[in-house]
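Problem: given the chain below (200 residues), write out its structure.
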Amino acid sequence: MTAVDDATPPATEPDGQRPGRSRIAPWVALAVAVVLVGLFVVLATAGGDDDNTADSHLLGRPAPEATGTLDDGTPFDLARRKGSWVVLNFFTADCVPCIQEHPELVEFAEEQAALGNDGAEFYSVVVNDTVEDVEEFFEENGGDWPKIYSEHGEFPVAFGVSAVPETWIVDPNGIVRVRIISKVTSEDLNVTLQQLREGA
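Solution.
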């Protein structure tokens, strides 16, 4: 008669795993998924609405030498605009955020024009686009402020603009004060300008 081992072998699930493991795995996967989703939400929302300004080596310094040609053929030299607040909006006619912010820019330009000599000068700086496309864009969407073209993109290069829209504010002394790297609203621009004027 052979000896029988009193120790019973551990029960197994049909797939050969010990009991409980197959029930724990889905919970572990769910926990990992929740952590990843939470991390994504934090990263996606961090600083999203609090501040759309961006740092630049140009801030607080004289504006770069930037020249171009206005849509009426007149030469434009930013250095000759001293004495006025100047707002530059870099854009492309087929840029979706540019299209989305355009009604706000129309409102802003109208409000500044209504202030007369106290209003800021507002310009659209064309980035990698044609005169025909820009003219068609403004005919369809409104806005009659000047547009600045530069033959080889010198104007955007001077400000280091690689993506649109971007909006810059230069004070009457020719000092760069603000760089905004996202869509803007008329209210945001007006409030920013007022704060700058009061701070100046």
